[in-house]
């Protein structure tokens, strides 16, 4: 899970939700990724969760220097968004499997259920959304190039959100998947084949070749679209994880007194509401 000063409030809420809903929270370990190993953040984690099993790993932005292309939203262009690609290099070799989670989520079920997903011969597991218009994730430049469009031959590519993924790090490392994703990032620098940050190059490598997980494990899009962040409701069906992907973040909307109804599901896990807000409530 990424952690930085801008998203620390979301990270702490996510951790709290995972611990509260875990049958055996003492068996859960956290791996945080950070560009700046700020003592204040480490102190905050220690004081908030004094018994938490965790480590913080440094992700150096030089790893993606010159490889990131400008997307439709500045927040998507931050180097830390790309750290998930390099988990097999960053984490110790004795960490064989991880659940990657964005910082704008809360879990309302036992995370061990997601951990126990049988990957079979797949490297990655995530909820798939095959009803989404997959062509929208790439530009006309991509689809009009016969050689590029052949990328998905032999696959039935479906959109999946990269903010919630079960990853086999051993197989990721063996398959050289970080390098394969980087190759698409370099093509993007020259050809402009997508517009959405770190998501499309991962789709190019994995779409149509992942283990599908129940949709309950990523009720995504609760932050609205990437441009305006308009309010959205829940999708039909059971829920195990809520994800405020998109422009709107619940802590910002709550602080601005312009919350969406869905943000009140996040609020009980917010450990850092200002005293002024608490008094008014």
- Classified in CATH, the superfamily is Spore Coat Polysaccharide Biosynthesis Protein SpsA, Chain A
Low-confidence stretches: 274-281
What's the count of strands?
Answer: 9
Can you tell me the CATH topology? Answer: Spore Coat Polysaccharide Biosynthesis Protein SpsA, Chain A
| SS field, number of helical segments | 11
GO cellular component, one term: Golgi apparatus
Organism: Solanum verrucosum
EC number: 2.4.1.-
Enzyme class: transferase
Provide a brief overview of the structure.
The protein is of the alpha/beta class and 281 residues long. Helix content is 30%, strand content 14%.
Question: Could you please describe the fold and organization of this structure?
Answer:
InterPro entries: Glyco_trans_8, Glycosyltrans_8_dom-fam, Nucleotide-diphossugar_trans. The structure is a single chain. The chain has helices at 8-21, 39-48, 87-90, 111-115, 140-144, 146-149, 169-174, 177-191, 199-206, 250-255, 275-280, and strands at residues 29-34, 53-58, 97-101, 105-107, 124-129, 159-160, 164-168, 211-213, 241-243. The protein has 281 residues and is of the alpha/beta class. The protein has a single domain (64-280), classed as Spore Coat Polysaccharide Biosynthesis Protein SpsA, Chain A (Alpha-Beta Complex). Strand 1, helix 2 (39-48) and strand 2 (53-58) form a beta-alpha-beta unit. Helix 8 (177-191) packs across helix 9 (199-206). The protein is globular.
